[in-house]
């Protein structure tokens, strides 16, 4: 096999512009490098962004240093603890589930819908026990979960709903942005490869004022006033009270400086991702592949990931496909090695692949190919030509 002499095309790259760089420099020069005015401005801008599509203006946004932190804070504020069960999908990154274990509760994993690769609501309902307290649906790759079904199940069984929307900005369901639905809370990710980035970071979104208040306190050591409040309020700047054993989950102004400008660019980012996905769809339609499911008519797919599934008629397996893509200088990934395959989850809950046939099949056949806004048209064409050559397309 001959190796490509072209530059390596990575699986993902962020798109950082001069405005973001200037804003970060401004943060550094201001002296506010931890949680301060830029973080508050970013939270307000994010609430306004969601509020444009929501039913009311009661959305509260809490900036954190990772989506994992946001999920942990939300579950803690919901009172999840030892003896409780939380249902989520096996087809996700471990962060979705590990936060449940942080609180001493147990994770109950269910399989996915084979068409959407999202959590199957029917299996969620079947998994409910007297110990069940919450459901964490994951909007896989940027396609909305059937939240109407999930919320109906939660309402009938008295359960909390925490949306893992790490992939789902700006995904919509029935023309409403994820983050504005009837869930107790939603958490977005701004990790380096997401649809917008703060390097590391996330946002916890809720309309529940009590949940938001608890999360804000627990975000910074259980302190009832953060540094910005203490140095800008009229009460003594040195005084604070510890009201709970909290965490260290605050976002810095350096990160928020990035996020504020990235959020402005998000609609354009989504349009570019959509165009790349459409180009892939058109180019791969005649190949032995199952293409990613599209959003329902009128709705938006964030296209965080473009996930191909090799059909049974494909001339090679997934692992060889990835090897050949890498040999051609193109990075790929797999989303995900499901939790039932991971030693900790498998061993703790005695999980077997047979219990999750759809996730297992997806794991064995899926590959995520490059899709990011910094890709040039020539990069997209190169990916298309390589996939077609590997799979025998003319």
Can you describe what's shown?
This protein has 394 residues and is of the alpha/beta class. The chain folds into two domains: 18-263, Type I PLP-dependent aspartate aminotransferase-like (Major domain) (Aspartate Aminotransferase, domain 2), CATH 3.40.640; 266-390, Aspartate Aminotransferase, domain 1, CATH 3.90.1150.10. It is 39% helix and 13% strand. The protein contains 13 helices and twelve strands. The protein has a seven-stranded mixed beta sheet with strand order 1-9-8-5-4-2-3, with helices on both faces. Strands 10-11-12 form a three-stranded antiparallel beta sheet. Strands 6-7 form a two-stranded antiparallel sheet. The chain starts with 17 loop residues before the first helix and ends with a helix. The mean pLDDT is 95.
What would you say about this model in short?
By secondary structure, this protein is α/β, with parallel strands linked by helices. The protein is 39% helix and 13% strand. The strands form 3 sheets. It has a 7-stranded mixed sheet with strand order 1-9-8-5-4-2-3, with helices on both faces. A 3-stranded antiparallel sheet has the order 10-11-12.
């Amino acid at each position: 096999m001959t190796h490509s002499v072209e530059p390596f095309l990575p699986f993902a790259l962020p798109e950082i512009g001069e405005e973001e760089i200037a804003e970060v420099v401004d943060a550094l020069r201001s002296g506010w490098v931890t949680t301060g005015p830029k973080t508050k401005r970013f939270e307000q801008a994010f609430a306004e962004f969601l509020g444009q599509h929501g039913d009311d203006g009661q959305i509260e946004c809490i900036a954190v240093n990772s989506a994992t932190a946001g999920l942990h804070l939300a579950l803690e504020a919901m009172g999840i603890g030892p003896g409780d069960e939380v249902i989520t999908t096996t087809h996700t990154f471990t962060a979705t589930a590990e936060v449940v274990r942080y609180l001493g509760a147990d994770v109950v994993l269910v399989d996915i819908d084979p068409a959407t690769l999202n959590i199957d609501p029917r299996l969620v309902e079947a998994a409910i026990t007297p110990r069940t307290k919450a459901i964490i649906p994951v909007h896989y790759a940027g396609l909305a979960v059937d939240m109407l079904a999930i919320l109906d199940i939660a309402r009938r069984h008295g359960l909390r709903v925490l949306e893992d929307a790490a992939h789902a900005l700006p995904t919509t369901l029935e023309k409403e942005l994820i983050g504005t639905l009837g869930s107790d809370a939603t958490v977005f990710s701004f990790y380096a490869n997401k649809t917008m980035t703060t390097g590391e970071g996330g946002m916890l979104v809720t309309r529940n004022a009590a949940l938001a208040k608890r999360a804000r306190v627990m975000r910074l050591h259980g302190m009832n006033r953060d540094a910005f409040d203490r140095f800008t309020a009229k009460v003594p700047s040195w005084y604070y009270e510890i009201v709970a054993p909290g965490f260290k989950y605050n976002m810095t102004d350096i990160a928020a400086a990035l996020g504020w400008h990235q959020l402005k660019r998000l609609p354009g980012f989504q349009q570019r991702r959509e165009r790349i996905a459409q180009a892939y769809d058109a180019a791969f339609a005649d190949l032995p592949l199952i293409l990613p499911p599209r959003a329902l008519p009128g709705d938006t797919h964030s296209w965080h990931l473009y996930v191909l599934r090799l059909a049974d008629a494909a001339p090679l397996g997934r692992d060889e496909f990835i090897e050949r893509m890498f040999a051609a200088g193109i990075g790929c990934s797999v989303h995900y090695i499901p939790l039932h395959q991971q030693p900790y989850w498998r061993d703790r809950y005695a999980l077997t692949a047979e219990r999750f046939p759809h996730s297992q099949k997806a794991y064995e056949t899926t590959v995520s190919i490059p899709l990011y806004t910094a890709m040039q048209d020539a990069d997209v064409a190169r990916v298309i030509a390589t996939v077609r050559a590997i799979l025998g397309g003319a």
